[in-house]
Amino acid sequence: MTANSSSGGPASAGLPGRECGVIWDVDGTMVDTAELHYRSWVALGRELNKPISRADFDATFGQRNPEIIPRFFGKEFTDREIARLGERKEELYRAEARNGLVLLPGVQPLLEQLHAAGFRQAIGSSAPRKNLELFLDITHTQPFFQAATSMEDTDRGKPDPQVFLLAASRLQVPPSRCVVIEDAPAGVEAARAGGMKCIAVRFARHHSRERLQAAGADRVVDSLEEVSLETVRQLLGCG
Question: What is the Cα–Cα distance from 46 to 101, expressed in whole angstroms?
């Protein structure tokens, strides 16, 4: 995945938002892929003759495959075998996702507003790089992002802040000038641990308002339709 920075556009015009960054989680935040991931894990479990329950899935959604696979299938696998199983699961997921991914309400307008105001934007996701590339291709959102971090870029999953700190570094924006948009408590905790603001969105309803608030979210919204450029400016103090 390559960073995308346009010359001559709003991001290079010296606008006030240029020194601020927005880091987007993807699954559950920009698109609701939970059911696709669940079906993929169930299919992999069927191949291994190890059933995966909805409760198993809910307890691990948003984590990295290297952390999920030992929980689902046991700790006897080598790192190489875990990588192979993870790639198989993602092949199953991408086959499902190619049927279509649709941005959740409010995502496209907010991307456009932030871009026009000169905010630097990145993806900070636990998903494999190929999944993010497919997402960007299907949703035609690549032009909005100057950087991206994926599973391959990290060795520690959320709630560790590594994925977001790396995204901020690639944007060349201090963590204190970044806001993370997330849907999961582990992601909210990661943002806070990295010294960033966080907006938690509940459109996919994977987590309760109370859990997201307890994790440290600065704002909890039911849809990104409730979030505007001014919301982000106020959180970060960007003019």
Answer: 25
CATH for 10-32+102-236, among 1.10.10.60, 3.30.110.30, 3.40.50.1000, 3.40.50.300?
3.40.50.1000
d(CA 70, CA 76): 8
How far is the CA of 72 from the CAs of 51, 85, 232, in angstroms? Answer: 9, 11, 38
Total-model pTM? 0.84
- Of 107, 113, 92, 79, the C-alpha closest to 40 is 92
For residues 82 and 69, what is the distance between their CA atoms, to the nearest angstrom?
7
The 3-state DSSP class for residue 10 equals helix
**DSSP assignment, residue 223?**
S
- For the chain, give me the number of helices (H) and strands (E)? 10, 6
The pair of structure tokens assigned to 202 is 């509940």
| DSSP code per residue over 132-146 | HHHHHHHHT-GGG-S
CA atoms of 224 and 110, how far apart (whole Å): 8
- Of 131, 107, 120, 133, nearest to 31 by C-alpha is 107
29-77 residue pLDDT tens: 999 998 999 999 999 999 999 999 999 998 887 788 999 999 999 999 9
